Every structure is written in C-alpha cells, then in structure tokens.
User: Fold this.
Amino acid sequence: MSLTTATTAEQIRAVHQARHTGRGREVVVTTILLVAILAAFALSLSIGDFAVPIPDVLGALVGRGDTGTHFIIIELRLPRALTAVCVGLALGLAGAVFQALLRNPLASPDMIGVTQGASVGAVLASITFGISGIALSFAALAGAVVTSTLIYALAWQRGVAGYRLILVGIGVAGALSSIVSYLLTSSDVTVSQDALVWLTGSLNGSSLEQFWPLLGALVVLLPLTALASLTLPVLQLGDDTAAGLGVPVERSRRALLGCAVGLTGVAVAAAGPVAFVAFVAGPVARRLLPTKGAALVQAALIGALLMLVADFAAQHLLWSSQFPVGVVTSLIGAPYLLWLLSRANRIGKGG
Assistant:
C-alpha cells in the first residue's frame, strides 16, 4: 500500500469517526433536553398555591382523581404549560432559522422587527376595534406577516443579502417600537387591558381554547419548516455556491423566511412578544453541538425548556408576586445581548 493510499484511508476513517462522535453527542444532548423538558413540565403541573403530588397529576391527566384536582391540573395549569412548550418550540426554531439563514447571531425575530410588527397589529386592533381574546391574537399574526413582507420588500435589491435585511429590520423594529410606545402613552387612545397584558409577553389566562389554534398552526408549520430547511446547509455556504450547486436561492430563502415568520407570528399571537427566547435558543444549541450547523431541533427544544423554566420562575421564584414570563426572559436575554455586542466590538478591534 502506498503512502498516499494509507493517508487517504486514515482520513476516511477520521471523517467516519467524527461523524459517529457527532451523532452520538447529538443523541445525548437531545435526550437530556427532552428529559429536562418533561421534568420542568411535571413541576409546572405539580407546584403552585395548591401542591399536587406527581401521581395525582398523572391521575388527573388520564381522567382519574377528584374534581378539585382535575380542575387545577386540566383547567388551570395544563393549558399554560402546553402553551409554554409550543411557544418556546416555535420561537426557538424560528430564531435558529433566521440566524442560520442570514448568518448573523443578531438575526432573530425580536431584533429585526417581526415581533414589533405583531405588537403594532395587536395595539392598533385594540384601539380601533376594541377587540380582545383570540381576535387580538389574529391581529398580532397579521401584523407580523405584514411587517415581514415590508422588511423583505425594502431589503430587496436584485435579491436579498443577509446584512441588508438585518439592517432594514433593525430600522423597522426601532420605528415600530416608537409607534407602540406613543400609542401606549398617548392620552387620546384607550388600549384594552388584554392588550396591555399581552404586550408584556404573558401566559396568564392561557386556556385550551387558545391552545388548539396554536397547536394546529404548528402541526402545519413544523413539517413545512423541516422540508424547507433541507436546503439550509447549502444556503449557508453563500448564494453563489448554492446557486452553483443547483439550489434556487431566492425561492429557498423565501420559503425559510416564510416558515420562520409564521412560527414567530403564531407564537407571539398566543403569548405576546416574549423577548429573547428566539435570540438565545439558537446560539445555545450551536454551542452544545458545534458540528451540527444550525441545530434546529435542539434550538426548538431549548426554546421550549427556556419558556417552561422562565414561566415557573415568574410564578414562584420572584418575590411574592407573579410576573409575566416576558420579564424573566428579558432578565436572561439582555445580559447575553450585551455580552454578544461587547464580544463583537473586541473582535472588531482585533481582540
């Protein structure tokens, strides 16, 4: 056997070993995240003003137990926990898609205007028509879709470059945030109490009636996102390379952006503009699986876990009052954003 042949064989074995190690780590990380989600879900059902033992929780879930326990678990706690999981899944996946597609850690829906568009839609609908409840959620979804379309149109110049879309999105986000602030502080308008609570990013008042539309949307959007993401590894190599490999760049990008916007819209419609979940989930997943690329599945699971833990903390761990979940996620995400920006500055200066 020649030296060249031996070297090639060693390289092939090294590649196979790296792939096997990567798959093993992916399975371990995914399993740990699933177990953590199940544990957080069980705690959210069991612990509260009236503690319910885990066996009684399981009994209530299968239709057994007394009426009081059934009411606490099924009517009060289960809708909130299920909504937290679904909203976290949607936001974590949407943020990871945005960041991977645009190749920028700042490219999350709450940084580039999508979430702010949903907020404007909800506030305007509340002021103009006085709507609340599920109608308010549909108004927020419409606001997210319209804003995303506007950002894409403004960023279009014979195609959409990632940095241009981010810059346009940040500008639109700032303008929309100013509009929301003006509407909320103006003495000439009246915003419903539901809209004010929704704007904080809250799971208070979650019900099964509000959960079913969210679940139905995810049943459609999650497979579509999985299908659209098949081209994502090639798109991450750059537009020219992807086009050279036969990938329809703009069509694939629009499909991914559409799925990410849809996921963001339905999540924000269900729970309000919960900050930083989409922003944080993707980078954490990529640090856990540095060889996995976008790590979309793991980012979605981290989003779900973050929502459950943050909502549990908002209900039970912060002083004596319940806080909206958006307050806790902001406390988690804001320091990360500052660290990310300071790190970018150091790298820019050669640090």
